[in-house]
Amino acid sequence: MTLPGWPRRTRFAGETGRSGEFPESVSAVAHWPGALPQEEPQVTPTDEPADTRTDVVADQIRQGIVLGSYPPGTRLRLAGLADELDVSRVPLREAFRELVAEGLVEVYPHRGAVVSPLREQEAEDCFRLLETFEVMAAERAVRSDHAGVAAAMRAELDRMDDLDPEVDRAEMLRAHRAFHFVTFDALGEGTMRRHVRMLWHTCERYINLANTGARHEEARQEHHQLVAAFAAGDAAVAAAVARVHVQHAADAALRRLSTETGADR
């Protein structure tokens, strides 16, 4: 894909040093002098809460990164994104913090914020951790409310089956995420779910990279097998299918990374 066009260099109000520069390290993003407004913005009853706006903006940028609208190395200019997404710079700065924490965006002095490169080692780590979480979630969710989980998964699977993966890419991405999070949501708002949400955000572009070509149909069959295992209340089969599903995705993603994308090691 072609890189999106971006307007002139962004400058941040309130920063020390030369105006418009980013902090000297990625970890310093949480302490940008200009990251938060000097005065709280006025919020009317019809305005979304700030954290909701930030979540929406972060998800829009995240989706663009996962689907390749912002390829690795793309400079993310604040002014350009504010115009493109029709938002103010405040939620954008907060969204950047989230994306940096997830490893999707990196900040460099004199260059600014850029989309992180794809890395084979990161992909390997992602799938290794996802396998652990998926298997644990499958076992626990089956034992909690396997019929309810199966029904919710089937609804998302039906939604995916009605979509064209080449045309409805954004909707397919959301449905696929929702399908997998049915099991994580069944666990409640505990530690495991908090960690897997962050992990998924980091790893989703590798997951999406895997779900193409013949792998898409293979993954679809595995999704149906997962639903059948949950409907039967069989924790062992659900865990086994979940494990194989992640392993096959890892194989497909790493194969593409090594042969097609020029990913970093």
Automatic annotation (TrEMBL):
<keyword id="KW-0805">Transcription regulation</keyword>
<keyword id="KW-0238">DNA-binding</keyword>
<dbReference type="InterPro" id="IPR036390">
    <property type="entry name" value="WH_DNA-bd_sf"/>
</dbReference>
<dbReference type="InterPro" id="IPR000524">
    <property type="entry name" value="Tscrpt_reg_HTH_GntR"/>
</dbReference>
<dbReference type="Pfam" id="PF00392">
    <property type="entry name" value="GntR"/>
</dbReference>
<dbReference type="Pfam" id="PF07729">
    <property type="entry name" value="FCD"/>
</dbReference>
<protein>
    <submittedName>
        <fullName>DNA-binding transcriptional regulator, GntR family</fullName>
    </submittedName>
</protein>
<dbReference type="GO" id="GO:0003677">
    <property type="term" value="F:DNA binding"/>
</dbReference>
<dbReference type="InterPro" id="IPR036388">
    <property type="entry name" value="WH-like_DNA-bd_sf"/>
</dbReference>
<feature type="domain" description="HTH gntR-type">
    <location>
        <begin position="51"/>
        <end position="118"/>
    </location>
</feature>
<dbReference type="GO" id="GO:0003700">
    <property type="term" value="F:DNA-binding transcription factor activity"/>
</dbReference>
<keyword id="KW-0804">Transcription</keyword>
<feature type="region of interest" description="Disordered">
    <location>
        <begin position="1"/>
        <end position="21"/>
    </location>
</feature>
<dbReference type="InterPro" id="IPR008920">
    <property type="entry name" value="TF_FadR/GntR_C"/>
</dbReference>
<dbReference type="InterPro" id="IPR011711">
    <property type="entry name" value="GntR_C"/>
</dbReference>
